[in-house]
Amino acid sequence: MKHAISGLTLWLLAPLAALYAQSSPPARPAKKLIEYGWDVPYPDQVRKDIRNMEKKPFDGVIFRLREWNHAFDPRPWDEAQLKPQFDDLAAIEWTTFTDNFLCLYAANNWKMDWFNDEQWKNITANLRLSAKAAKIGRCAGLVFDPEPYGDNPWAYPGMNPNRTFAEVEAQVHKRGAQFMTALQTELPNVRLLTFFHQSLFGGLLDKPDLQDRQKQLAQQLGDCCPRSGTGRYRQPNRTRGSSMGTNWPTTSPSASSFSAPTTPSGSARSA
């Protein structure tokens, strides 16, 4: 049956392939140059200085909300406190910067637990506010920077020493789906720009055996001599980014499972 379905699919696509071959190939999307550095600005800074910023040869900028900018922050954010920043976002007059992204960091500075449902109720509500901010600012999307500038959420066993790796992996996978659902509530066609992630470890998630995955991950981490890489978000919109990095780990954390048809994939870092 599987071969029959494959054959039918080929027959169905053959006329389309012939038509495509006769037409000119579509133009590849233009590459974008997005500014991101240690001087990540806040909305009020962008609003005040956007004319000078747009004199630089970039297509956009990555910026962040003041204080409220960590994806795994389990504290409930107060939308009323965010309103001044929302107002700044609405007042930014973009001209040449067409691809701008609001940044979310991954550090676990407030002891997020993958298995704490109450925490994740707050986290998903906060993510919806982040997406709302990006929407108000007319951003192209959001950035998820998985490098933990603080406590590492990807480390195993982390806060779950009595759980197996497989249990934690499955739970992180579940939270990844909730992560994306929260963003898509405000931005159904959200573009998520990511750094490093699974594009460094091609085929890793195709390994059915956990020990094989761990072994391959450890080997590939050891081979990352250039210490740079690209990121990807699988669906519905994929955007690649690159960043320089250091301090790769030697063990397999749970970040590899932060990936699904509707979730961002995560890259592994050491604490």
- Helical percent range? 25-40%
Specify the CATH architecture.
Alpha-Beta Barrel
Percent of residues in beta strands? 5-15%
Strands of the largest sheet, in order across it? 1-2-3-4-5-7
What's the level 1 CATH class?
Answer: Alpha Beta
The third-level CATH topology is: TIM Barrel
Helix-strand pattern: HEHEHEHEHEHEEE
Shape: globular
> What value does the Rg take, in angstroms?
20 Å
Biggest sheet descriptor: 6 strands, parallel
Q: How many structural domains?
A: 1
| Count of strand segments | 8
* Poorly predicted regions: 1-16, 220-238, 240-257, 259-271
Mean pLDDT: 75
N- to C-terminal distance:
49 Å
What do you see in this structure?
The chain has 271 residues and is α/β, with parallel strands linked by helices. It has a single domain (34-257), classed as TIM Barrel, CATH 3.20.20. 37% of the residues lie in helices and 10% in strands. It is built from 6 helices and 8 strands. The chain has helices at 2-22, 43-53, 79-91, 117-136, 165-186, 210-222; strands at 34-35, 60-63, 101-105, 141-145, 192-194, 228-230, 238-240, 242-244. It has a 6-stranded parallel β-sheet with strand order 1-2-3-4-5-7, covered by helices on one side. Strand 4, helix 5 and strand 5 form a beta-alpha-beta unit. Helix 2 (43-53) runs parallel beside helix 3 (79-91), helix 3 runs parallel beside helix 4 (117-136) and helix 4 packs parallel to helix 5 (165-186). The longest helix is centred in the middle third of the chain and has 22 residues, at 165-186. Mean pLDDT is 75; it is low at 1-16, 220-238, 240-257 and 259-271.
